[in-house]
Amino acid sequence: MTTTPLDKTSALPLGKSGLSHDAVYWIGFCVVLALLIAAPLVLSEFWRRFLTEVLIWGLLAMSSDLLIGYTGIVSFGHSAFFGLGMYGAAGALLLVSPPNLWLAMLFGLAGAAGAALFVAYFSTRLRDIYFAITTLIFSQIFYVIIFTWTAVTGGENGLIFDRPHLSIPFLYNARFTSTTMHWFVLAVVTASYLILRRITQSPFGMVLQSIRENEFRTRAIGYPVQRYKIVAVMLSGLFAGLAGVLYAIQNEFAAPDFVFFLTSGDTVIYNVMGGVGTLVGPIVGAGFFQLVRQLLAEVFGDQFPYLIPLGIIFIVMIIFLPQGLLGFARRWLNK
Amino acid sequence: MSVRFGGLAALSDVDFELGRNEVRAIIGPNGAGKSTFFNCLTGVLRPTRGRIIFDGEDITGLPSNAISQKGIARSYQITNILPNVSALENVRIAAQSRRHGWNMIAHHAGLRDINEKAEAALKSVGLLAKGHELASNLSHGEQRNLEIGIALATAPKLLCLDEPTAGMSQAETEDTKELIRGIAENLTILIVEHDMQIVMELADRITVLHYGAILAEGTPAEIQQNPRVLEVYLKT
After folding, report:
1. Contact A239/A79 with Cβ under 8 angstroms?
2. Which CATH superfamily is domain B1-71+156-236 in?
């Protein structure tokens, strides 16, 4: 208790020198952010929208990484959280006039939180593959409800609505352009990243990682593991719902296809391709996946069965790059 | 403090009491019920009959996280640590379980009270210099000691050690013995151990389990003289 050679800065795991790591990290962060801010100014309309959507899928994948990479549980239910965020936003935009951006977010988050609480409460009683299957089944319940309750959700056709204005009370109010839309999405995704990064580095985040490493021992040192998992699933669901809200605003529709479990499967693939447990890896994974898909469509046409070559690429990556694209930087990114 | 307990097929009507600051060893042949006893005590198993009273409170059947919060910590026979984080992180996560567990805002390495506790726990198991090593890179003996460090970091009132020297070399065993002697000064310790030398040197009293029942109980000297114990255990 008297000597403390492990002071605060050197106490970071495997730290060589905390300062230079932080400096390099934040410089890298600012460079990437600056590039993403500048991107819509040089990209064509098509690629601008493409990049915005990559960011949205990236946010969905990143939310799932909190569970896959940090808590060690794989959710196949993220389509439900994404979808509820989407339909929540749709509800706010259709019911309230004039449509309000922030209200859409609030409704979307509330919808996702409700779905997440429902899924989390039941699925966290189980572990491993049983957890994954339970999240999948419960998310499909939401799909069936949305698909069949035509009076409210529009059923198969989904809901179509107008994009709200980008409004900051008393300061700014204008129609979204594809450029301001991109910046808005970028701001939300960046803020989400910083919040998620903080959460994973907090004492709470360490408990999640402890659950990933050794669930039994985590319980034995005094943590109510199931409660931590419920909160982790809910947090993850909130960010997934946020991605759904952004997607709804970007595309001005909500469709049941996105609540189907294929969306959850894509989310897991983004994580594996980009590198789990890195937060930014899943965004890179989503970008890589969408880019390859788009390039295949450019070369071979829209009808090309892009999933076949993508599946082969995925298998090759799992064999030769099992950590994903950013897996090599995992320890560094989490420092 | 009293621990009363009876019941399983593996353990029948074991009536057991442990005094504060006592170092008690439990010995017995394989299958005598030592591990089952530990598992019941730390909430891994629920006794079918009987009660466990700790510090005047009935803790029978509580889940292991609640038992930990009451002040009973345990180290494991088979090393049970978090392999992919540093040794310091292992004890720090244990230390923050008393409070801060739900804190999502602070940086985990920036909490002074937790760092002090974690470092104290590492120091008392002689691993302070290796705090930044990945736990999986530590030697077997060091991992065994880290195991004790994790238990200590939860600031327990009662520490249960399940074969702390299992698989250790002679020199490591010697170190661990000194280490346990050090922490025993102000802690109640329950220890299951096969190494008779350690048991005889460290324990204030010894309980001998045989086929799930208490065969004998007494000071190390008494146990060594007990003809029934000699018959079933020491001779074999």
Report:
1. no
2. P-loop containing nucleotide triphosphate hydrolases (3.40.50.300)
Residue A3 lies in a domain: no
Residue B140 has pLDDT above 50, yes or no: yes
Is A165 within 8 Å of A174 (Cβ atoms)? Answer: yes
Q: Where does chain B hold its CATH 3.40.50.300 domain(s)? A: 1-71+156-236
Q: Two tokens at A74?
A: 């794989």
- Helix or strand or coil: residue B206? strand
Distance CA B155, CA B151 (A): 8
Residue at B192: amino acid letter: V
* d(CA B116, nearest CA chain A) in Å: 6
**Which pLDDT score, from 0 to 100, does residue A14 have?**
43
DSSP sequence for B24-87: EEEE-STTSSHHHHHHHHTTSS--SB---EETTEE-TT--HHHHHHHTEEEE-SS----TTSBH
Structural domain boundaries enclosing A197: 19-334
Find the CATH number of the domain harbouring A164: 1.10.3470
- Which B residues 18-57 touch A at CB under 8 Å? 42, 44
Give mean pLDDT, residues B155-184.
88
d(CA A93, CA A113): 18
pLDDT at A307: 85
**Residue type at position A24:** V
Buried b or exposed e, range B47-78, using 16+ CB within 10 angstroms: beebebebeeeebbebbbbebbbbbbbbbbbe
Interface test with A, best of B44, B64, B78 (most A CBs within 10 A): B64
Which residues of B fall within a CB distance of 8 Å from A219? 63-65, 68
Percentage of chain A with pLDDT > 90?
A: 68
Q: Kindly identify which residue of chain B lies nearest to residue A12, measuring between CA atoms.
A: B109
> Could you check whether the bond before residue A98 is cis, i.e. omega within 30 degrees of 0?
yes
Query: What is the predicted pLDDT for the residue at A184?
Result: 94
Question: Model ipTM?
Answer: 0.86
Side-chain-side CA neighbours of residue A235 (13 Å): 25
B7 pLDDT more than 60: no
Question: Could you tell me if B139 lies within 8 Å of chain A, comparing CB atoms?
Answer: no
Contact between residue A68 and residue A92 where contact means Cβ atoms under 8 Å apart: no
A281: which 2 tokens? 């890896």
> Which SS3 state, helix, strand or coil, does residue A202 take?
coil
Mean pLDDT of A90-99: 89
Is B132 within 8 Å of chain A by CB? yes
> Would you report the helix, strand and coil content of chain B in percent, each value rounded to 5?
40, 20, 40
Nearest to A220 among B42, B85, B98 (CB): B42
Nearest CA distance, A178 vs chain B (angstrom): 34
DSSP-H helix ranges across chain A: 18-42, 45-65, 78-95, 101-123, 128-148, 150-153, 178-201, 203-213, 215-220, 225-251, 261-274, 280-300, 307-320, 330-334
- Those residues with Cβ within 8 angstroms of residue A25's Cβ, 6 or more apart along the chain or in another chain: A332, A333, A335
Residue A7 falls inside a structural domain: no
